[in-house]
Amino acid sequence: MELNAIYTEQKEYMEKCITALKRDFTTIRSGKVSISIVDGIHIDYYGTPTALSQVATVLATDATTITISPWEKKLVRDIEKAIMQANIGVNPNNDGESIKLFFPPMTSDQRKEGAKQAKTMGDKAKVAIRNVRKDSNDKVKKLEKDKVITEDQSKKGQDEVQKITDAAVSKVDDLVKEKEAELLKI
Question: In terms of residue numbers, what domain contains 147?
Answer without folding.
Answer: 3-27+107-184
